[in-house]
Amino acid sequence: MLVSAKEMLTKAKAGKYAVGQFNINNLEWTKAILLTAQELNSPVILGVSEGAGKYMAGYKTIVGMVNGMLEELKITVPVALHLDHGSYEGCYKCIEAGFSSVMFDGSHYPIEENVAKTTELIGVCNEKGLSLEAEVGSIGGEEDGVVGMGECADPAECKMIADLGVTMLAAGIGNIHGKYPANWQGLSFDTLDAIQQKTGDMPLVLHGGTGIPAEMIQKAISLGVAKINVNTECQLSFAAATRKYIEEGKDLQGKGFDPRKVLAPGFEAIKATVKEKMELFGSVGKA
Ligand code: 13P
């Protein structure tokens, strides 16, 4: 059964490790992530962006697929199904479809409007037992056509949103989605420290997990990050493994064109990436 992300993140914050949010794109992605979490006895969050939601034929299709897998694959570790960077309308659609967690990304609204909409959604989520992630300070890079500049969040605004009663809080600390450019300045640990001082026990969320060096990840966890989002890195490893299979001409040998064979190396590559991240985040054995 899907669970809210609240308990797993409260434990992670207290235990100084982070739970990975891995974004899903299709059946192979979902199965690879769930099986890896089970093998490593790790809690996990499946992230779905609005674009990926459309791609996978809608939120209800995703809920059906994930719930089916939990049962058929005998997944017993805690799994949350989470809307990533949700719009106000998207949050309501996912709540109705059976997601166990949503992110309301109100970072592009003026702070008053972000507060008003977040407050309303907290009420709905509390009533239904869902977790809610809010965002302060837009996260850079491009996601679903929205480009942010990678700003640093204002710690006072973070406190304001945290005090509303959100479950977890994403704050911009110089992180961006996708690959980091060669001239990237790195994470702003001063900002993160100031945010954690003001928000106390609140589990903080680090977006743009792809390509952040291991030492920075560890330092971010030590300063209160309890959830780390990874998307692009699984896409890159899937694409590289699939490219290799095709370039080696394997699809031309015997029944190598069978989609179950074509997609197998990519599937294994996602598993390896998820395993590496769970080990780095410290969530192995924490289910
Ligand atoms: P990356 O694609 O950079 O890993 O970021 C993922 C993310 O933050 C999803 O919200």
- How many domain modules? 1
Order of adjacent strands in the largest pleated sheet: 1-2-3-4-5-8-9-10
Radius of gyration over alpha carbons?
Answer: 18 Å
Strand content: 15-25%
How does this structure look, described?
The protein is an alpha/beta fold and 287 residues long. It has a single domain, classed as Alpha-Beta Barrel (TIM Barrel). Helix content is 48%, strand content 17%. The protein is built from twelve helices and ten strands. It has helices at 6-15, 27-39, 50-55, 59-72, 88-97, 111-128, 155-162, 189-199, 214-222, 232-247, 259-262, 264-281; strands at residues 19-23, 44-49, 79-86, 101-104, 131-136, 141-143, 146-148, 168-171, 204-206, 225-230. The strands form two sheets. An eight-stranded parallel barrel has the order 1-2-3-4-5-8-9-10, surrounded by nine helices. Strand 4 (101-104), helix 6 (111-128) and strand 5 (131-136) form a beta-alpha-beta unit. Helix 2 (27-39) packs across helix 12 and helix 10 (232-247) packs antiparallel against helix 12. The longest helix is centred in the middle third of the chain and has 18 residues, at 111-128. The radius of gyration is 18 Å and the shape is globular. The model has no long low-confidence stretch (mean pLDDT 95). It binds 1,3-dihydroxyacetonephosphate (13P). 1,3-dihydroxyacetonephosphate binds next to strand 3, strand 10 and helix 10.
In short:
The chain has 287 residues and is of the alpha/beta class. The chain is built from 12 helices and 10 strands.
